[in-house]
Design goal:
There is one protein chain. The chain has strands spanning about 10, 15-20, 25-30, 40-50, 60-70, 75-80, 85-90, 95, 100-110, 110-120, 125. It has about 130 residues and is mainly β. The strands form three sheets. Strands 1, 2, 3 and 6 form a four-stranded antiparallel sheet that branches. Strands 5-4-9-10 form a four-stranded antiparallel sheet, with no helix packed on it. Strands 7-8-11 form a three-stranded antiparallel sheet, with no helix packed on it. Strand 9 (about 100-110) and strand 10 (about 110-120) form a beta hairpin. The protein is elongated.
């Protein structure tokens, strides 16, 4: 994806999350705050907070490329299904979402996070 090398600058607005039957929809507004047209790859990461299961610090779960003129803004929406939060339950033999809080991080790269939000999920089967 690269890491935000561009001839312009992008601002990220506050993120929001809305549950739906099969997961969570995450949205964020991105604005080209520079004076040149440019493209940005907006990336969405999920991190389990205080997980009882060993897992990576964060997982890339969605991304979208946006092409904006100077001053132009666009709201992006990402549908994260339950599998975006799930781990494989060896004993049960299926994907499961451990209950608890998850931080959703949105940014230009894994190290350039511009917006964060937390969602609380109940345990559920995810396949």
């Amino acid at each position: 994806f690269g890491h935000g090398l561009s001839y312009t600058r992008f601002d990220y607005g506050a993120a929001s999350a809305t549950p739906y039957d099969e997961g969570v929809t995450v949205s964020v507004e991105v604005t080209n705050a520079g004076d040149r047209a440019g493209q940005e790859v907006v990336q969405v990461y999920v991190a389990a907070i205080d997980s009882s299961v060993q897992r990576p610090a964060q997982d890339l779960r969605a991304f979208a490329k946006v092409d904006l003129a100077p001053g132009q803004r666009q709201r992006l929406a990402f549908r994260l299904g339950w599998r975006a939060f799930a781990v494989w339950d060896v004993g049960a033999g299926h994907w499961t979402v451990p209950g608890g809080e998850y931080e959703i991080r949105i940014g230009a790269s894994s190290r350039d996070v511009r917006a964060r939000l937390t969602v609380a999920l109940t345990p559920r089967r995810a396949d």
